[in-house]
Amino acid sequence: MKKISIIICDRYHTCAGGKCLRALKNREGAFALYKDEKDVEIVGYTTCGGCPGGNIEYSPAEMKKNGAEVIHLATGLVVGYPPCPRIQHFCDFITSKYGLGVVIGTHPIPQNYYLQHKQLKTWESAKWQEYIQNVITDEKTRLAYD
Ligand code: SF4
User: Fold this and answer.
1) Which string of b and e fits 29-62 if b means at least 16 CB within 10 Å?
2) What are the sequence ranges of the domains in the chain?
3) The pLDDT value given to residue 24
């Protein structure tokens, strides 16, 4: 049994989590990392707390207590306009302070965000390519998440 937690961008704080839950069930996007795991349990779900992300400092403690091994920074962090500028800080801090794994992304990037960011050239750098590697998927999958 793999235990994970999700932290979403507070801009999407009313999000009901449908895309993430579907992607987890289908093992799509970043959850394809668990394609060989029969059971994956979400033991925590919260927002960053709003810019600059104050909830990142404390929420991983409860997630860890609940058995989380990995924290996913939701896809909203990379697709928002603008994308979260603090992703690297969050990754470094969670790993350093809590010793938990961090994965950038949850559900596949929806096609409409993919096209808009392509036009904006948001993800052209090597760093951004690395950030979105687990959620860029393919056009058919992206369209299914529009
Ligand atoms: S942009 Fe980053 S810091 Fe700001 S609300 Fe979204 S995840 Fe939090």
Assistant:
1) bbbebeeeeeebebbbbbbbbeeebeebeebbee
2) 2-144
3) 98
pLDDT tens profile 31-73: 999 999 999 999 999 999 999 999 999 999 999 999 999 999 9
Q: Assess contact for 48 and 89: CB atoms under 8 A.
A: no
CA separation for the pair 58, 72 (Å, rounded): 15
- The residues, ordered by sequence, that sit 6+ positions from 34 with a Cβ below 8 Å of its Cβ are 2, 24, 27, 40
Is the beta carbon of 10 within 6 A of some atom in ligand 1? Answer: yes
Fold type of domain 2-144: Rossmann fold (3.40.50)
Whole-model pTM over 0.70? yes
Locate the ligand 1 atom nearest the alpha carbon of residue 48 and give its number.
8
